Amino acid sequence: MEAPNELKKRIAEVTAERRRRESEGLRLYRPMPSQAKFHASMSSERIVRGGNRSGKSMSAFAETASAATGIPICGPDGNPLPFKYPTNYPLLIWVIGYDQRHVGGTIYRMLFMPGAFRIIKDLKTGEMRAWRPWEDEDAAREDEVRPSPPLIPPRLIDPKGWAWENKAERVFTVCRLRNGTEIHAFSSKAEPKQGDPVDLIHIDEDIEYTKHVAEWQARLSDRKGRLIWSVWPHSRNDALIQMSERAEEQKDRDVPDVHEIVLRFSDNPFIDKDEKRKRIEGWQKKGKDEVRARDLGEFILDTMLMYPNFSDEGHCVRSDGDMDYIDEILTQRGGEPPLGWTRYLVLDPGHANCAILFAAVPPPSHLYSDTVVCYDELYLHQMDADGIAREVRKKSEGVSFEAFLIDNRAGRQTPMGFNKTVRQQYSDAFARERLQSIQTGATFLPGSDNVQAGIGLVREWLHESPGKRPRLRVYKQRTPWMCREFILYRKKMVRDEVKDEPVSKNDHLMGCLRYLASYNPVYRKPRRTEEQWSPAFRAFKDWQKAGEKENETDYMTLGPGLAR
């Protein structure tokens, strides 16, 4: 049995240790109600998006620290929020920053250094707690405020568990905790690490290569891991926008796969009111878009998008409500135009990605005399000209095209190892599949190279006039890639200035649409072509051309089934 003095000393040590642990950063952290929604969400993928100094990074790094240490986060009322991470084995956590400077300057600082938020001694309990500057009593004691302890306390870190890329700049690659959990830091500019099953991936702010997100997500499947993304609304980040769209689509589910919480700079009670006023007034001088992004955390897609006025309601075929004749006929026929409409095919060639747009112009009417309907598409990958022609054939049996168009710039190129231009290769492939247009047979008309003029014409097609539908009509159910490109086709950013020039990606079907608009398709009374021949009659024409005879006779039988 311990001596009384030793026992008292031991009790004092335990009491002091308990108080130290109760005063650790993560235990003192109290999220705002909007941040608490992020912590309480059970979704496997979460976005906390916000303007500058809105609290998005604070909440995400607190979540990461909680997962790593096993310490639950308490809500604004002091009660623990649901803890959603495994506790029966060590976790593998990845934290991803834009570059190495971000790893050393932000990730290390937020997780392992004091000052993620500010604390003050409570006058009633004498214990440390988070500072509440929106309360008059706390605001008057600002000179007593201290930096919070680190979110991950040093006692939980294995002193020998660090691996460094640049220790002087605090750029770490691995931090191992005493509980066996490992936190790996990565730059988004590096190739994504493969093979490891990960429990939590935390992306902080923008990334260099949006295509890496899919690889990171794949690392989570083995352990039913989670992904969190704390981010300012970078409108050029396609992966972020797509995740945000998924969250919007799933917002009515009880537990959506993707949950997005948006925080505002102006709602952050930890920032002085006068400081908020000065910042917002400064942003207002730069325009409304600056305020929308930096204060409200909104994507500024309408400024960045090449065709911001495209909408399902205004430009897609309607299946109910205020329908006109075009809506009704296409809805009845599942998007397939009647044979009496004039059809056009536009091809954007490529082996990696080839896009083909099918369009039709209905007979003239005073209500829709110039309407152009994009009714179908092909978006093919890793396929040669013959394979692409076969896919076109499947969609073209029994119909007649007025003209074929092709990207002129790509079409006149001669690939290495070939003695024919791209245009000639596709023409030959279409001829082998007996694909013919009325104007040019199996060959293609060149699409206009004037990008700006084409964009201007598409914008005219999208324009809505009072009492009249836009010229462009899209059958959405059969053109998912085209509708996707409408919301991803962006303008270039040069030193934070938006240029009215397109970014050369997510643009294959947008290119097809531009060539079509430049050509100005019109209605022409249908003329019979070989494409309207029945299979039996087409076989007869082949037989006739070859001079062959069946059974030494000078006739053949036409009818149902195979022609012989």
Could you please describe the fold and organization of this structure?
The chain is α/β, with parallel strands linked by helices and 564 residues long. 34% of the residues lie in helices and 20% in strands. α9 crosses α10 (288-294) and α17 crosses α19.
Task: Produce the secondary structure layout.
Elements: H1 4-22, H2 25-28, H3 33-40, E1 45-50, H4 56-69, E2 92-97, H5 100-112, E3 118-121, E4 128-130, H6 136-139, E5 146-147, E6 157-166, E7 171-177, E8 182-187, E9 200-204, H7 212-218, E10 226-231, H8 238-249, E11 258-263, H9 273-286, H10 288-294, H11 301-304, H12 312-315, H13 325-332, E12 342-348, E13 353-361, E14 372-381, H14 385-396, E15 401-407, H15 408-411, H16 422-432, E16 445-447, H17 451-462, E17 472-474, H18 480-488, E18 491-494, E19 497-502, H19 508-519, H20 535-546
Parallel strand pairs: 1-10, 1-11, 2-8, 2-9, 9-10, 12-15, 14-17, 15-16
Antiparallel strand pairs: 3-4, 3-5, 6-7, 7-8, 12-13, 13-14, 18-19
SS content category: alpha/beta
How does the major sheet shape up? 8 strands, mixed
* Total of DSSP H or I helical runs spanning 4+ residues: 20
Distance between the termini: 107 Å
Lateral arrangement of strands in the main beta sheet: 6-7-8-2-9-10-1-11
Mean pLDDT: 85
Query: Could you say which overall geometry the principal axes of the C-alpha atoms support?
Result: elongated
Number of strands: 19
Spans of at least 5 consecutive residues whose pLDDT stays below 50 are: 549-553, 555-564
How much beta, percentage-wise? 15-25%
Rounded Rg: 32 Å
Helix-residue proportion: 25-40%
